[in-house]
Automatic annotation (TrEMBL):
SUPFAM superfamilies: FMN-binding split barrel (SSF50475). Coiled coil: none annotated. InterPro entries: Pyridox_Oxase_N, Split_barrel_FMN-bd. Gene3D superfamilies: Electron Transport, Fmn-binding Protein, Chain A. It comes from Streptomyces adustus. This is Pyridoxamine 5'-phosphate oxidase family protein.
Length: 295
């Protein structure tokens, strides 16, 4: 089975990067190597993307725990202890068997990230994922956060729902240096990372966001999905107090004559939860790959 589908291939061809994509694609496998298993067991944070079975909307959700809460339990399986909070948009999805999911483990301390896509099913203490695609990405645009502190007393507050961003939420998004993006396509779900200097995500209105698509690994997995299916989920995280903002809606990619690309996202539903992640991370050291902000 090819790593790429028609949506990704079209963008690779348009950018003249098909050969580079084929080279990167050879590193994608369906097994969890020992180095990947060791990396997972060190992580206190995992982001998962999936569709809400009740609405079909795509969401990205954070999962957290003491290191070891995510671990490889076989050459093609990971086990996750715990799961989303009861009010999380993906709580229902992860309680079902055989659900297409995507995960990304990102370690700000080392600027490493690993993606594992497959199918999940509930377990006694959480859920498991049987891997279909496993691969690492380069450290581009990951902000380094040298350490984190676990807050065992932090508890999620009540979730606030809406169909557009409040002024405070818009400021949160506009000041973000990182978010996570979930998309869906013929090959399943993808969960990816987007990073840049604060301001790289622009709030055009209470229901419209945009961000530049910076040059990456030439795979075009997320944008390839959006070319065929506009559903998308975004996750913004306050790395200090654990507040999360989850957005679901539709996205499209616009290409300019000079070859640059901009993604435009329309908000359909927003969920904000304070204290959702019991981690406090150090202040960021911005990635040297981040383009300078434009006026």
């Amino acid at each position: 089975m090819s790593v790429y589908h028609a949506g990704s291939r079209a963008l690779q061809e348009q950018a003249g990067l098909r050969e580079a994509a084929d080279h990167v694609g050879r590193a994608v496998g369906d097994g969890i190597k020992p180095v990947a298993a060791a990396f997972l067991e060190l992580q206190p944070l995992l982001v998962i993307g999936a569709a809400d079975p009740a609405t079909g909307r795509i969401w990205a959700s954070p999962l957290s725990g003491e290191p070891g809460f995510v671990r490889a339990t076989g050459p093609r399986q990971i086990s996750v202890t715990g799961g989303p909070a009861p009010g999380d948009p993906l709580a229902g999805a992860l309680a079902r068997p055989d659900v297409p999911v995507a995960t990304i483990a990102l370690d700000p301390r080392t600027r490493r990230r690993m993606r594992l896509n497959g199918r999940s099913g509930p377990t006694r203490g959480g859920f498991s994922v049987t891997a279909e695609r496993v691969f690492a990405n380069c450290p581009k645009y990951i902000q380094r956060r040298a350490e984190y502190w676990w807050d065992p007393h932090r508890r999620p507050g009540p979730s606030r729902h809406g169909h557009e961003l409040s002024g405070r939420q818009a400021a949160f998004v506009a000041g973000a240096d990182t978010f996570f993006l979930a998309t869906a396509g013929p090959s399943g779900v993808e969960a990816s990372h987007r990073g840049g200097n604060p301001g790289f995500v622009q709030v055009m209105s209470p229901t419209e966001l945009s961000w530049p698509d910076y040059p990456g690994n030439a795979m075009f997995l997320s944008l390839g999905n959006l070319a065929l299916d506009p559903r998308a989920g975004l996750l913004f995280l306050d790395w200090a107090d654990g507040t999360i903002l989850q957005l679901t809606g539709r996205a499209r990619t616009e290409s300019a004559a000079d070859g640059t690309r901009t993604v435009r996202f329309s908000v359909e539903h927003a969920v904000e939860t304070s204290g959702a992640v019991p981690l406090r991370w150090a202040e960021p050291e911005f990635s040297p790959a981040n383009p300078a902000p434009t006026e």
